[in-house]
């Protein structure tokens, strides 16, 4: 029996109605009967999609629709994060993202599949959907990463359209920032960045995507963690997947997402794994000048569909979507509040 038919059969026996598998928005149906422990373990947790911040909520919906409509995990994470990239109200991703200190919107993105194929673009300008360019790098080049003008030339050769990504709102904020020109990238719930999305499909295969306009007011040419496989995003299909948000420099210094996956490999739950690496980042940065405004957060999912998140400071949340509970926001546990030093 195919995995899919097996999945549907088990779902039909369990507390999860088939309709809830189709619609991420819906909750469990009352008329279904109790599942055995065995079927619960196998049914409830797959598929699952998890993504950073509130913009993850509509992104999850798009990803879920793609996944349950027959798309692959990679199709799903790409479709999901494109929602944030294309939304000018999201001031930290793609179109409408806050610019660097020269007023240029420069974008970083990466994508990774269950066979460890990956693609990435960094310091890319003028292309609204860097995640789709990253996917082309993965699928149509012998490389993993393209940057700057080379990434733009590649995108144009693949038919992407060059456009102005600096919206009047972002331009206005940049001009206001120029008045004081103080670089202090406080990243939090009211000022969130980066969408990272992880998906475990119904066959138990993992995919991930990460896309951002990076830290606002950064130096022109700065690249963060988000396009770096192992820092902003990492997965090992034998183990689990992890992704980061927050101050990219701190995540790069500690190879954050790869380390979260390694903790899961050693048997830690996704939340424990995120917490251990956040603690490590804290230890490495407690006397660092970045500590004043440092925020990092991770999300993770393992092969069983268990998921979790953890952040250094309060205020990090993420969106989770599965068949059992639908799409919802969850607050991550954290090490300290913003008042603590
Ligand atoms: C960066 N990690 O460019 C990104 C920014 C971010 O939540 O995720 N903010 O450093």
UniProtKB/TrEMBL annotation:
Which spans of this chain does the record mark as coiled coil? none
The record's annotation in Gene3D superfamilies points to: (Glycosyl)asparaginase
Provenance organism: Snuella lapsa
Which PANTHER family does this chain map to?
L-ASPARAGINASE, N(4)-(BETA-N-ACETYLGLUCOSAMINYL)-L-ASPARAGINASE
The protein in question is named: N(4)-(Beta-N-acetylglucosaminyl)-L-asparaginase
